[in-house]
Amino acid sequence: MVQLEEATKSAGTPLASREWALVALLAVAFAPGVLAMADVWTHVDYQSHGFLVPVVSVWLAMRQRYALRRLPVEPAGWGLAVLAAAFVAYFAGIIGGSVSLQGAALVAAIAGAVLFARGTAWLRRLALPIAFLLFMVPVPPGWITPLILQLQLFVSDVSLRILNALGILASREGNVLLLPSGESLFVAEACSGVTSIVTLAPLGVLLAVLTLRGPVARVLLVAAVVPLAMAGNLVRVLATVFAAMRVGAQSATDGPPHEMLGLLTYLVAVSLLLALSALLRRVEPGGSAAAA
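Above: the chain's sequence. Below: its structure in token form.
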């Protein structure tokens, strides 16, 4: 009781004022970085989930509100060092034009602010909501561009092998599939699987943390994101090929039907991820009781 009373006193008006001042400082300082990330979320398909990540993170934090009320407020001075390092990284990101560094610096600054204002116990309790914010940080173009190319080549190669196994005499040049009719289909960035991988990863982590208890089951679920995403895009490419053989490449790749096919394959991948989560929850020790 004494410790709780001391914590309550330390969380009085003076500390609350300092906390609001710190929030205001972070909001003003990092506003340009947030706007830069929002621009990326708006214009890059595989980063569009960034708008939802902060919402999910706030929801995760709200789930801890009752536990946080019982924690002592023990501000850690070395949180200032974390904040200082975050600001240095942030300004380096601005000078270097790196939106990714600016976003990562914002997440680090939030962690440092919690540590400085409330202490290590609060940071441990809020570790998941804060870490989840990393999914809103745009992947550096230097990392993602080579990956997209490799995924395009992989999807093209596997699709060709499946088509040949089905007796369809197609061929390919790089990531362009040459159909028996003489028409060609370009396996674009949207069909590479990168969008599905990048957007399914946060969902996989969220499901792993919230629905599973064992580390093995959690790793398996998160690792399943890549094969599920790639399988979905393989189905999309093959369906487009079959449609092109029937109605022509132009009709098969233009308009709402092709876009709906992409959405449908993504929803199938999400459904499979949810089903795998449910299965792992049941097979892990004590999982049946938890599921009930």
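Residues 2-138 form one domain.
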